[in-house]
Amino acid sequence: MPKKYDTPLLNELEKGPWPSFVTEIKKAAAWNKMAADELGQLEKSYRTRLVYWKHGGIVGVRGYGGGIIGRYSELPDEFPEVAHFHTVRINQPTGWFYSTDALRMTCDIWDKYGSGLTNMHGSTGDMVLLGTRTESLEPIFAEFSSRGWDLGGSGSAMRTPSACIGQARCEWANIDSLDICNEMTQEFQDEMHRPAFPYKFKIKVSGCACDCVAAIARADCSIIGTWKGDIKIDQDAVKWYAKNGTDIQNWIVDMCPTKCMSYDGKELKIDNKNCNRCMHCISKMTKALKAGDEKGATICIGSKAPIVVGSLLSWVIVPFIKVEPPYDNLRALIRKMIEWWDEYAKPRERIGELIESKGMRSFLEYIGVPPVPQQIKEPRKDPFWFFHGDDIENIKKLEAEEKKTGKYKF
Amino acid sequence: MALPERRTDIGPPSYKQFLPPVIKKNYGSWKYHEILSGGVMVHVAESGDKVYTVRVASPRLLATETIREICGIADKFCDGFVRFTSRNNVEFMTPDESKIEPLKKELKDKGYTIGGIGHRVSNIVHTQGWVHCHGAATDASGIVKAIMDELYEYFTTKELPNKVRIALACCVNMCGAVHCSDIAIVAVHTKVPQPNDDLLKNLCEIPTTIGSCPTFAISPNPAKKSVKINAEKCMYCGNCFTVCPALPIKDPDADGIAIVVGGKVGSLRSSPKFSKLVIPFMSNEPPRWPKIVAAVKLILETYAKDAKKYERVGEWIERIGWEKFFELTGITFTYQHIDDFTFMRDTMRTASTFKYTS
Fold first, then answer.
1. Do A101 and B80 touch (CB under 8 A)?
2. Does the A230-290 domain belong in CATH 3.90.70.10?
3. How far apart are CA B24 and CA A390, in angstroms?
4. Of A35, B60, B306, B309, which sits with the fewest C-beta atoms within 10 Å of its C-beta?
5. What is the pLDDT of residues B34-81, one digit of tens each?
6. ipTM value for the complex
7. Residue B317 and residue A245: Cα distance in Å, rounded?
8. Of B60, B136, B148, Cβ closest to residue A119
9. pLDDT at B344
10. What is A8-146's CATH number, 3.30.460.10, 3.30.70.2500, 3.40.50.150, 3.40.50.80?
11. Do B30 and A171 contact (CB within 8 A), yes or no?
12. Is residue B183 a contact partner of residue B144, using CB atoms and an 8 Å limit?
């Protein structure tokens, strides 16, 4: 029988209307010894305001270097059942869709070998199975992998890619975010499971600029759906919105960041060449406005959380790229980026940080993407720029050409 | 019993087998959607097919028993399919409108909270905290629970000028989009790590430990085969502790909570933004962190009252100015708000056109 702990502090978190994680731990603790000791140790943390998990520890399954996060209690004598309490990251099905059969299968395996506690899901996207012993890792992996499931990424490796719901149930998805994510996950299996990178590398795919998986803020490689061509307007639907309480002038036209819209009380007009495709008007008038026909993605690079030298949002690198099966262009581009990073980065240096220290030019030249103004908000303001190789020579050649033709080219 | 034969590098099972039939049929052909209430929406396909979605909250940390219960509900109403969202909500989908009310009733009877759709507070994205992390400066789930109990109606019914995304990280590693959230809670250490010299020489690689410090505060201590930390340079980020466990940083009184606001990830109207510091430190007060809950509610309700329709928290603050934000919320402005790390050049005001505050 699992040990029963007195948890006066945690019990306070069973009060109130929001679902309680304490109730969840107690459900498992009723039959599972590991969950019971997790509850006991957590109550102690609440009492002392200190965490009692040890740092890391290298554990895993044969042939893999990632997917399992080693976790040991600092208090194994007091809470012996969580002396080992490792996390298993199971790569989620893209988009977090499940059949109930698949979910029950997961629960069966986890009840047999683990704590009965999960995170649905971890921050990167994996199904997180919370707490098991070292000797159970191989059996857990055999049970999952034989049924068609695999581990996610951890450590200095390709991390489990994730995607928004995309075309499965969203009219705004410009790209098939689920398929792209799934294909990239399959592409980088080796890089996910055998950490050999300088640090982590995350890929996230959002179907539009609403960015429901926070790709722009949380992925080293952010793939965000967009389009070329005119926004399609259904003027009858515009009238429907006007009649049903939408203040088109104030809520739509005046909030357009590029002021490329106008409305005369009857007809909505968009000056498409000045639209920056932000999604405000489309998202507020989804029945009336549809993205243009030529779909693709913007590829941005570098975002990360603050550790070590401050957080970054991803930078636009490829303003527009077609992303259609079999996605060979995308696969090659990501591989090129990783190659450059792997070549030059220090340990624990993310690709965005390396671009900062080594220079955007080195990166762009390596991956074969030209500099274009869409990549920047404004040009540099300092006077300290570099000239490389034959930059000056090329300018001289151009000037010689100008002398001949009598026409300047700036 | 013999184990089944393991396979490697097969990746996740294809998502295609887990798509409900109506989703599969209308994949890529959705026309529009409507939000019917705080937790119910309908998507309409070009074909005329509809799929209704009922969204419920989860504490993210789920016992298998609860997952089985969710499966039971999905079997009964959703043809055996269910989905989780990027913010840890659970979505029940069905093409059959007549199932919505019975589904909602069953969910309510079983104690689920329906909501999180539209211009509301959705579920809080958060980290592990004391439940399962080694570096946590606070618990994550406990604060989330306490905050969402207080903001419950903003999840279920009450509307806001726009959606409000709240995130929580239990240290500055920020395993969650804390750095780009409307309102974010981040736990901070405030004490310099104390090298455990005896352990350090056996446990840690000294050059890596020195190299881990973003402010170059760590130097070698050859006499002890250990390292020294320059207290004036240390900003308690804990990165050294991550690479070297012999540099403990946790302290029950010195660890606490900061609040940052105004971030977003979407590009609607304005570019994605980082969250910025508004409260540098509040003490850890388990089990319900009342001061932190009050601070989040204060910021949310000030925004709700003052922002224009469709403005996100960050857009509202940019319109009124940060000086007005501090005035409206009554939050004290201190030295910590002025950047003295790497971003001062970009964050100091360079014009005399500020607004006066009382």
1. yes
2. no
3. 55
4. B309
5. 999 999 999 999 999 999 999 999 999 999 999 999 999 999 999 999
6. 0.96
7. 27
8. B60
9. 87
10. 3.30.70.2500
11. yes
12. no
